[in-house]
Every structure is written in C-alpha cells, then in structure tokens.
Amino acid sequence: MSATPVTLQPRPVDPSPVDPSVDHEIQAIVAGELTTETCTTDLAAGPWTFDTRPGYGPGSSMGDVIPTGAPRQGELPAEYREAGEEELAARIVAAKATLGDRVVVLGHFYQREEVVTHADYVGDSFQLANAALEHPEAEAIVFCGVHFMAETADLLSRPEQSVILPNLAAGCSMADMADIDQVEECWEQLADVYGDMDTPDVEGLLPVIPVTYMNSSAAIKGFVGRHGGIVCTSSNARTVLEWAFARGRRVLFFPDQHLGRNTAKAMGVPLERMPMWNPRKPLGGSTEADLEDARVILWHGFCSVHRRFTVDQIAQARAEHPGVRVIVHPECPMDVVDAADEAGSTDYIRKAIAAATEPTTFAIGTEINLVQRLAAQFPQHEIFCLDPVVCPCSTMYRIHPGYLAWVLEGLVAGEVRNRIQVPSDVAVPARIALERMLAAKP
Ligand code: SF4
Q1: Domain annotation for the chain: domains and CATH numbers
Q2: Cβ atoms of 340 and 307 closer than 8 Å
Q3: 234 annotated as a binding-site residue
C-alpha cells in the first residue's frame, strides 16, 4: 500500500474559489461572517492555548476523559505562537528546503489544510507509515497526525531515524480507550472463563484471538503480538477477521466497537454473538454464558468524530439532495452504516469520489478536513459533510503550522524535538502483530 505523493507548495496567498481550510471557516464563523455552526468557538484559538489545560482540547473529543499521564506539550515559544499564517508557511518552506532529503513530512487525511499543504505525503495512518519506509535516507520523519500513528512509523522505520510528533498533546481519544492495564485485566478474566488461552483445542483453534485496530497504542499492538493476535486497518478488517477465525473460536476486538461490529455483521456474525466488553464492569458486563457463545467480543471504544453521524442526518441529506450518494466511514455506528449507500475507509472514500465520472452529489460521513479538501479537489462534484456542525478531530487539530515550524527549525539547528520512541520490549511483539497483518491475504 503506498501513500499519495503531493507536490510541496506553500499555501497560496489568494485561496482558490473553494477554500479547503476548515480553520478559515471556523475563524469566519466565530467572527460572525458565516452562519454555519461550530461545536465550540474555542476552536478559533491557537492550540497552544490548551497545552496547559487538561483534556483533549476543543473539537469532537472534548467531552472524552483523557487518561492520567497522557503526554503533554510544553509551551511553544512566542515567536511561533505570534507568527501569522504566511510567515509560518514561509518558515516551514525555508526549513524544508534547507533540510532537503534529511526530512520527510507526513500529513494525515484529517489534518488541517495549513499543515497538509507542506506534507510530502498525504494518506491514512498505515499509508503514511509505509511512506516513511520509502525514505530510508531521511534522518527525521515528521508525522503530522496523532500519537499512535507516530508510534507505528517508529515501529516500521529504521532505528537511526527519528519520528517526530509536532505536538505531543495530539493523542487519540479512541486509542486511549483501550488502556494496556485494562486489556491485561480483561485477558485474565477471559482466561478464568475459557481456561488455557495458549493451547489450541482438538480442532486446532485457540479460545480467543486478540485483534487490534491500527488506531491503538504500541502497547496494545505489543499485547496482541504476544498473544497470537494481529493488527487491522479499516481497509483490511474483514481479511484480518477471517485470518483470526481460522485460528481461534472467538475474536477480542479493540478499541473500536463500531468497526468490529460493522465488519463482523457484514461477515454474517449475529449481533447477539458480539457482546461488549466494558472494562469498568466484572466480565466486561457480560455473563459467562454470553462469553462462551461469543464470536466477537467488542471493546467499549469509539471515535468521537465518527460517533457524531446519525441516521437523521442521512435522511435530511436524502430529502434535500435527491440522488445523493452517502458514503460513511466504518467507525460510524451500525445504524448509520446500514442507512448509508456505502461504507469504507478514508482511502475508499477518496477513491470512490475520484472514480465518479458523472457530476455527483456526495454526502460524506468522516472528518471534516478530509471532506472539505475533497470538495476543493473535485469541484465537478457537490461534496459535503453529513454533519452540518463544523467539529474537527480535537487531537489532529492540535497540530498547527506553528508546531511544524518549531520542529523543522529545531532540526535545522541540529535539535530533535518531540521524538516518539517505542521501547524495544513493546516494539518487538508489536512488529510481529503488524507483520501478521501484512502477510494476511484476502
Ligand atoms: S478521528 Fe477519531 S480515531 Fe482518528 S485520531 Fe481523531 S479521535 Fe482518533
């Protein structure tokens, strides 16, 4: 899987007629120039405003509980906080030009436009980790995404390469919902129900195969690797579940209940055989009989960006735009996926729009930065976000051009700032889980 190369260009001074910048839209809403709604006017402030406060910051995850000990970002120097958009763009371009092949900048699909415009590659988390692999000559990989993505890039890159996350507070509320201590505790409780977890039965099947979504910490990927399990992405979840069912009676799927449920349901697993594991309840809130009968045990996690999409929004889109094609991400709740015309990964959504030969109206259920960029890239189509309220991913939003300029100018000065390094006792089994995924064939 390779990522999409993009031409390196500074942000144009005069935006194109379709401005892909969600930040510009938020600033205009807060200034009263637009009547569109935003979920919080705090989004108009610089992310450094929130670095001293607890929580994920404004946006979709602002109501989620951030774990104790989640990484914090130190104060960004004033020269970066006070610089305007054009100055920061010019400084980023200059630093990149000085560094040349010594650095590669990766931008996630959900990242703000003012950052993506400087990315050498734009893609989903796994595509971007692979893009890093294509640059063994780069001393530094600047990952403009969230924490687990930088960890994955560190797992897949060479040890002498530094992976940098421009703002350490850019975590992921969904990944944080699967805490390694809670997962270890869950495994012990499941062992009390199923007995020996490491010895296959007479049919050669283990009681449970753990499967983790790419959107999880390296610690969880390491856990999965140690217990015969595997990683999946939203693109290959079905193939990975088939791999797991060939080796185990059941799957323990984390952190995203919705991706697990939507994928298993499409494979014919009945809903009553997919109990939820709530880590705050004994046996996850299920009975022993439920767990014995389970095919997929779903961890109680979700993405607060994709949980915002509703069946009512789809009904409204269909009423207002007859013939609209509704595509949603499989992290959306099951009723939303069922009501949509199609569900697929960010890459699926992008390719579906690119492949449409006739002018089409698309209502998209995924993060708004990607939707607005697609609307700007494909002006022959009408493309809009299903959620009318502008509410980006809180943690992607924490990466601002000020932080990107700060880490790049650090590299120019010979200083590696905000390096993300996975300890080797975690990295070795985590790589095994990733390698199993790469080897799993459809
Ligand atoms: S969109 Fe959801 S899963 Fe992706 S980084 Fe944001 S909170 Fe995490």
Answers
A1: 4-174+395-421 (3.40.50.10800), 178-301 (3.40.50), 306-390 (3.40.50.10800)
A2: no
A3: yes
- In order along its 442 residues, the chain shows pLDDT tens digits of 444 444 433 333 434 567 899 999 999 999 999 999 999 999 999 999 998 888 999 999 999 999 998 999 999 999 999 999 999 999 999 999 999 999 999 999 999 999 999 999 999 988 898 888 889 999 999 999 999 999 999 999 999 999 999 999 999 999 999 999 999 999 999 999 999 999 999 999 999 999 999 999 999 999 999 999 999 999 999 999 999 999 999 999 999 999 999 999 999 999 999 999 999 999 999 999 999 999 999 999 999 999 999 999 999 999 999 999 999 999 999 999 999 999 999 999 999 999 999 999 999 999 999 999 999 999 999 999 999 999 999 999 999 999 999 999 999 999 999 999 999 999 999 999 999 998 987 6
Token duo for residue 127:
């595509």
Confirm whether residue 194 is marked as ligand binding.
no
Q: Separation of 215 CA from ligand 1 center, angstroms?
A: 8
- Is there an atom of ligand 1 within 6 Å of 149 CB? no
Residue nearest to atom 8 of ligand 1 (CA): 172
- The finding on whether 345 has its CB within 6 A of some atom of ligand 1 is no
Query: Is any ligand 1 atom within 6 A of the Cβ of residue 346?
Result: no
This prediction has a pTM of 0.94
Question: Edge-to-edge strand order for the sheet containing 296-299?
Answer: 230-232, 209-213, 251-254, 296-299, 276-277
